[in-house]
Automatic annotation (TrEMBL):
Residues 48-276 form the Radical SAM core domain. Belongs to the radical SAM superfamily. Anaerobic sulfatase-maturating enzyme family. InterPro entries: Aldolase_TIM, rSAM, rSAM_sf, Sulphatase_maturase_rSAM. GO terms for molecular function: iron-sulfur cluster binding; metal ion binding; oxidoreductase activity. Keywords: Iron, Iron-sulfur, Metal-binding, S-adenosyl-L-methionine. Coiled coil: none annotated. It comes from the Bacteria. This is Radical SAM core domain-containing protein.
Length: 408
């Protein structure tokens, strides 16, 4: 057995996260299960574990109208998860191994009528928690900020450093300004200094259009965003490239239809502005690059879109929303990726039924075909799992990593 190591790449090293002490046994059980299938042994049932991490969409309601939103088609449907449903979900999944929850997506979570109660419930049950918000109702985050812990985080989707860009990018229905978001965000750290506070910035370049309407480029605001982050006590700025959802396939995509010459030009401009952003952050604000942004900058987007036939990460993380349970954030709301109803984790019987559908999805969803336009965050770990399953390496030789970060 290899010695236990620390998790060094906390944000995006998903393979390392699966090797953490509290996760590694289900990793080994999954690999063993898949190997038996590959070898043609008697059919075995999928190991009975919950996801390590779930994306929890509390509500479809949203008070912004961001033109680049990949979930625009499912917003403001009037649907929401009830507190009782969420309580049942936690009571079912935690004994089966749930370790973290990210509240985000499909709507603005702080608009849920029981937002504070949901956060309190999650923390009372000992889970790591991340919250993604547009920052319009941060007073609701204040009310629960004291109960957040060292590895918990709050990330604001800002995507701009100037008021006109912020307004164009988000179209807040209440007339909210960029300053209205930044000033209360800074006070969060005063309530609880242990919270990790993030400034999320989706990079938009010239030439991106949605439904024939061009999006506002924010490329030249990257360094300014880091300066604002430092001024308002953020811990990091997370840069990621703009994704769009193709209407004909409902898939998220990156650089779809962009010619190589244009892609090279985009890459050069982003590299230049990212370097300026890192200089602006200095030792004060950490600059994070998403997996697909790093691939774009290294000219590896085509490789990132090349998936194994089987998406193994379905087993380790799912999306729970008012529209149902989906096996991937990139397919939120897409029927072919649905593995359960919104109550699909709310009882032991429902959980078993959902796990059966998950097993079918793992075996039948062809990621090589379905995800060929997606710059997948989980590309590396999916290929690591695929190659390990088909190797002769012993699962007992997988190094164990100290528990730290269970977000997937």
């Amino acid at each position: 057995m290899k010695e236990t190591k620390q998790l060094k790449q906390r944000e995006h090293d998903f393979a390392a996260k699966l090797k953490q002490a509290s996760v590694i046994e289900r990793l080994k059980a999954y690999i063993d299960h898949r190997r038996k299938q590959v070898e043609g042994q008697e059919p075995t049932e999928l190991p009975l574990f919950s996801p390590v991490s779930i994306n929890l969409d509390l509500t479809s309601a949203c008070n912004f109208a961001c033109p680049h939103c990949v979930d625009a088609a499912i917003l403001n449907s009037g649907e929401a998860l009830t507190l009782d449903t969420i309580d049942g979900i936690l009571n079912t999944l935690i004994p089966e191994g749930l370790l973290s929850i990210i509240i985000l997506g499909g709507g603005e979570p702080t608009l849920h009528k029981d937002f504070e109660k949901v956060v309190t419930l999650i923390k009372q049950k000992g889970l790591q928690l991340g919250i993604v918000t547009n920052g319009s109702c941060l007073e609701r985050v204040y009310r629960v900020a004291e109960i957040l812990e060292k590895h918990d985080w709050v990330r604001l989707s800002i995507d701009a450093a100037r008021q006109d860009t912020f307004e164009s990018m988000h179209r807040p229905k209440s007339g909210l300004t960029l300053k209205d978001v930044l000033e209360p965000a800074a006070r969060l750290k005063g309530v609880n200094p242990s919270i990790s506070l993030g400034y999320s910035f989706v990079i938009v370049w010239d030439g991106i259009s949605v439904n024939g309407h061009p999006l506002t480029s924010n490329l030249d605001e990257m360094a300014e965003a880091v300066q604002l982050a430092a001024a308002y006590d953020f811990d990091y700025v997370s840069f990621k490239p703009c994704l769009l959802r193709l209407p004909e396939s409902e898939k998220e995509t990156l650089l779809h239809g962009v010619k190589k010459e244009a892609e090279n030009r985009i890459r050069q401009i982003i590299e230049r502005n990212l370097e300026e952003a890192k200089k602006a952050g200095g030792d004060t604000v950490k600059v994070l690059e998403s997996v697909n942004l790093r691939a774009l900058l290294e000219n590896r987007i085509d490789a990132l879109k090349h998936q194994p036939n089987m998406c193994h990460m379905q087993f380790f993380r799912t999306v729970l929303s008012p529209a149902g349970i989906f096996h991937c954030p990139a397919f939120r709301g897409v029927e072919k990726a649905k593995i359960g109803t919104k109550a699909g984790y709310s009882s032991e019987a429902a959980f078993l039924e959902t796990q059966q559908r998950l097993s079918e999805s793992i075996n039948t969803f062809d990621a090589a075909s379905e995800c060929c336009d997606i710059g997948c965050f989980y590309h590396h770990v999916n290929w690591w799992l695929e190659n390990f399953i088909r190797s002769v390496e012993s699962i007992d030789e997988i190094e164990t990593i100290l528990d730290d970060n269970f977000f997937l």
